[in-house]
Amino acid sequence: MRRIARLGTVGAGAALLLGAMSSVSYAAGYVDPKSSCASSEQDAGGVDCRVQFYTDSNYNVYSALSWFDAYGEELGAWDQATDGRGSYSKATWTVSGTTHTAEVYATGGVGDLKTKDLSIPEGVRVTLKACQTDNGGLYNCHSRTATA
What we know:
By secondary structure, the protein is of the alpha+beta class. The protein contains two helices and ten strands, in the order H-H-E-E-E-E-E-E-E-E-E-E.
């Protein structure tokens, strides 16, 4: 009888855990499947990249945006929702054997927008790492390859 009671307690605990975890996939956010890179309209030979995060799986409510624009070599992060999450963008590129990085965080709440102007030679490939933030941690990260 005690064994059945223990199994019942373990089963109830597992059910509670699974119920609590069911919100984790929502908390992780969603990335627009159309988030991608495309030829820059303002910088011949350049490739711009954008990663748009959403709070829902129907892609209706913006959460955050990360980007790299070839024109002006701009790195950006924008917190777009009052959902407790922010936006992080990191650019990595290599010139003459030296690897460079730059990063921006937009974690000040809805409307927080951070940009950084970079100086990257034309034609250099840039890896954009785009993530959502939550209490200082990075999650739901995605990488795209742009061209300055």
